[in-house]
Specification:
Layout lengths: L6 E4 L3 E7 L3 H6 L14 E7 L5 E10 L2 E7 L3 H12 L5 E5 L3 E5 L15 E4 L8 E4 L8 E2 L2 H10 L5 H4 L27 H10 L4 E7 L10 E4 L2 E10 L2 E7 H4 L4 E3 L2 E5 L3 H11 L1
Parallel strand pairs: 1-10
Antiparallel strand pairs: 1-7, 2-5, 2-6, 3-4, 4-5, 7-9, 8-9, 11-14, 11-16, 12-13, 12-15, 13-14, 15-16
């Protein structure tokens, strides 16, 4: 193991649902924000299941397999997602069941490092949101030479890249575009209908999104969840999850540009990650 060895981190907050059967593609395609009709074996796509009003209920990764897909979901919501999928299934020829495959991540502190798990047990797929997030493993073992890490290490890596996570968007609390799903390959705007599609597409068509999740930088411990971000005397957003020196926040884009920001009397500053700026530019083109 060397200083630049990748980190292997089990993700116990995630769990797997197996979906198969002759009609699984059409079934999921009509529900999720992501195109699943063209997904191939060994590939992954990021997406969400929304409320009919377009709010984000659950995030998920769709992982292609020979006989269907695995859905990588928040463990605390797996039972609720199972019940919702069974409710939508009606008479579709689809099999839906919990899987015992454990979820893990393999990542490197160097975003230029092409993480390679090598040979070993389990299945690995590239994180479809951002290459620098590394790989996601299912029933996978830590590769030889990898550092042993945990979910806190992975969350610190994700936060350092400026990518929001489930603790930031919760369930039925925000819109997927506010959580940057459109910039992280989490919404396919060309696939046609899905639950919550009307509101999501309308936000996209308008071309102006008032609120986005972005990292805040500061000195010391993270402010409490929900703490108000101020631009002078104006409310500019709220703090979400965080750690020492850095937190995610849902911010009013029209109030943070060039403003002096504070939280609980402490100066904070916004970080706009390179991937965010690049994806925002592509979306506007």
């Amino acid at each position: 193991m060397t200083a630049d060895s990748p980190t292997f981190a089990p993700l116990p907050s995630r769990a797997v649902i197996a979906v198969s059967g002759p009609e699984w593609r059409a079934f999921l395609h009509n529900l999720l924000t992501q195109d699943v009709e063209t997904i191939g074996e060994g590939k992954a796509r990021f997406g969400g299941l929304l409320t009919p009003q377009g709010r984000l209920l659950y995030d998920l990764f769709v992982v292609g397999r020979a006989d269907g897909v695995w859905l990588d979901v928040a463990a605390e919501h797996r039972e609720a997602i199972l019940q919702r999928l069974l409710m939508y299934r009606l008479r579709a020829k689809v099999e839906i069941a919990a899987s015992d495959a454990a979820v893990s991540a393999l990542f490197s502190a160097d975003p230029q490092d092409a993480t390679d798990p090598g040979a070993g047990a389990g299945e690995w797929v590239g994180d479809p949101r951002l290459p620098a997030l590394g790989l996601r493993g299912y029933g996978a073992e830590g590769p030889v030479g990898a550092r042993a890490g945990d979910e806190a290490d992975y969350d610190a890596h994700r936060l350092a890249l400026g990518v929001p996570g489930p603790a930031d968007w919760g369930s039925d609390r925000t819109y997927p575009i506010e959580a940057n799903f459109d910039l992280l390959a989490g919404i396919d705007f060309h696939k046609g209908c899905f639950v919550g599609q009307e509101t999501t597409s309308r936000m996209k068509r308008r071309g102006t999104v008032k609120n986005r999740m972005l990292p805040l930088l500061f000195d010391g411990p993270a402010p409490p969840f929900g703490a108000e971000v101020l631009a002078g005397d104006l409310r500019a957003g709220e703090v979400l999850s965080g750690a020492h020196g850095r937190a995610m926040a849902l911010l009013r884009l029209d109030r943070i540009e060039g403003a002096e920001l504070s939280v609980d009397g402490r100066a904070v500053r916004v970080q706009r990650p390179a991937w965010f700026e690049a994806a925002l530019g592509q979306a506007a083109a």
